[in-house]
Each structure stands twice: as structure tokens, then as C-alpha cells.
Design brief:
Blueprint: H1 12-41, H2 50-74, H3 76-89, E1 145-147, E2 155-157, H4 172-184, H5 189-197, H6 205-231, E3 237-238, E4 241-247, E5 252-263, E6 275-281, H7 287-292, H8 309-312
Antiparallel strand pairs: 1-2, 3-5, 4-5, 5-6
Helix pairs in contact: 1-2, 2-3, 4-6, 5-6
Length: 313
């Protein structure tokens, strides 16, 4: 950022603070450039993985934002400039989100000059993104029991609704939240337990692990049905990728394999919806895809991995 002569403050202390903030901002920007150069051009042993690069950039960008906030307090012109830029670049919020409107109206609707009634000529509408933190709630199910005064021993009651985990506390939505947090957001169960404890809900890690295991068992038919749909396709795609797997007792991880089987014919105006199934295996021997695709007939799109040759044979 360049400082024009007519925007410089008269106070030497304020000017010194602005110069220090500008120098710190320049240093952080130089650090961003160095991290990007290391990621792009560094030697293989020094090249940062993308996730690690983003973590480093986040720290630098947060520092830049803090410096800019401090600068805006002492430089109103810079604040106005950044607000204008922020409004131009923020885009529009998704239309599917619910809107909660608040009308900020004037108290007296009479002209401050002549006291005649004012009439509406327009309005300014501004949107902000709000979030409601996850909140626990208790679903209470009451089942009244009815007896007959004429017949002894007759009690009539509606059957209890089935539960995903019989005798357990969670609803289906609670178990789904634990699964998504663990497998999609990579949030270990012990960290989830700490998050829930902040809301006064104390769930042991082993309890969460029990929910995950039972849910995985109940989801097997869905997984098998989806794989069956993919094997009925005329030209699915197959690949394999490594995945680090915990190896208890050895103090390190071992390398496992994920085999994704996918279908997406949308670019060719295909009628079948896109789908993908992941299957874990401890290795990538040729017998793995042979076992996964048993009963499949058609064209399988693969790369040059030799393990798929057995399928053609």
C-alpha cells in the first residue's frame, strides 16, 4: 500500500505506528511468497504438502488481517477503502438459506422540517451470514397406557418406535453427525467428546466408538446395493490410492489401499446418475479388484496398473 502525502497524519506517533504496521504487513507478504516458492519449486524433501502450506498461509493471513484492523483504527481513509472493496468482492449468499429479516425503521415518520407525514420511497437491504451452533436437544416420547375397567388385566399401549441403537440414547441424526465429523471432517472421537462436554453432554469416547461401529454395520446393505448398481453399469471407472492406517503396537502407520469404483456419464448425456463406492484393502494385489468386481461384465476404465490385467484375462 502506498501512502499519499495528503493522507499522512500530522501526529508523529500515529505516522510511526502506520509505518510499523506497513512494514509488518510487507514481511508477512514476503513470507507468503517464500512459502509458495518452496511449495512450487523446492526440492522434493523440502516441498510442503498442500495442507501444510495452507496452514502456514492461514497464520500469515490472520496476522495481516489483524494488522489491517489496527491500521483502520488510526486511518479512516484506509478503512473506507477496504470496506468498499469488501462489499464489491463478497458476492451473494446462497438462495436456499433461510432469511430472517429485521426492519430497522425510524421512530418518528414526520418530516423534521415541516412535520408533514413521510412516505416510503425505497429501502436499503443488506445481508450477513449467520450461523447457529450445533445444539443438543432431548426428544421425549410418551406412550400412554390404557386399561379397561370392565376387563381385568387388559392394558393397551402403542408399540415403541424402533431405534437405530436399541437401548441407546442417540437418534439417527446424532449418529449421522458423529459419522460425518469423523470420516468427512477427520475429527477423532475423543475430540468430539470434548466438544460435546462443553455443552454439558458427557459422552465417553468408547460410547461414540460403539455408535460408529453399529452404524457401519447397518450401512453395509446400502454400500453393497450401491456397488451392485455400479457393477451393472456398462463402463465404470476404477482406481486405487494409498491411505495411512493406524498400526497399534508399532508406534507408526502402515499403508493401506482404497479402491474407488465410480460412474459419471453426464458429459456423454448418460441416463445413469453419478455414483462412487470406496472399498478398503490392506494391499493392491490383483485379487482385490477381482473380488470386488465379481460378476461384472462390460468395459472397465483403468490406468496402467498391472493388477487390472487379471480382470481382462
Amino acid at each position: 500500500m502506498t501512502l499519499a502525502a495528503d493522507t499522512l497524519p500530522d501526529d508523529p506517533g500515529t505516522l510511526k505506528a502506520m509505518l510499523i504496521a506497513e512494514r509488518m504487513r510487507a514481511e508477512r507478504l514476503e513470507q507468503i511468497i517464500k512459502e509458495l516458492q518452496r511449495h512450487r519449486f523446492g526440492r522434493r524433501a523440502e516441498t510442503l504438502p498442500e495442507d501444510q502450506l495452507l496452514l502456514g498461509l492461514e497464520d500469515v493471513e490472520q496476522g495481516v488481517a489483524a494488522d489491517e484492523a489496527a491500521e483502520e483504527r488510526n486511518a479512516p481513509a484506509a478503512k473506507v477503502e477496504r470496506i468498499t472493496k469488501r462489499r464489491a468482492n463478497r458476492g451473494s449468499l446462497p438462495a436456499h438459506l433461510p432469511r430472517i429479516e429485521t426492519v430497522v425503521d425510524i421512530e418518528h415518520k414526520a418530516c423534521p422540517c415541516c412535520r408533514h407525514p413521510l412516505h416510503l420511497i425505497g429501502e436499503d437491504v443488506a445481508e450477513r451470514l449467520d450461523i447457529v451452533p450445533a445444539q443438543f436437544r432431548v426428544l421425549v416420547t410418551r406412550r400412554p397406557r390404557y386399561g379397561c375397567r370392565a376387563c381385568e388385566g387388559v392394558v393397551v399401549q402403542a408399540p415403541a418406535p424402533t431405534r437405530l441403537i436399541e437401548g441407546g440414547l442417540p437418534t439417527e441424526a446424532t449418529v449421522a453427525q458423529v459419522l460425518v465429523s469423523k470420516f468427512a471432517d477427520h475429527l477423532p472421537l475423543y475430540r468430539q467428546a470434548q466438544i460435546y462436554a462443553r455443552q454439558g453432554v458427557h459422552l465417553d469416547r468408547s460410547t461414540l466408538a460403539d455408535w460408529v461401529g453399529r452404524a457401519a454395520f447397518l450401512l453395509r446393505p446400502v454400500h453393497e446395493r450401491l456397488l451392485g448398481h455400479l457393477k451393472a453399469s456398462s463402463k465404470p471407472f476404477a482406481d486405487e490410492t494409498t491411505a495411512p492406517v493406524l498400526d497399534p503396537g508399532r508406534g507408526r502407520t502402515k499403508t493401506g489401499q482404497f479402491f474407488p469404483y465410480a460412474r459419471d456419464d453426464r458429459p456423454w448425456q448418460g441416463a445413469d446418475p453419478p455414483a462412487v463406492v470406496f472399498i478398503y484393502a490392506p494391499d493392491r494385489k490383483a485379487e482385490r479388484p477381482l473380488d470386488h468386481l465379481q460378476g461384472f461384465t462390460g468395459t472397465l476404465q483403468v490406468d496402467g496398473y498391472a493388477g487390472y490385467r487379471a480382470l481382462a484375462e
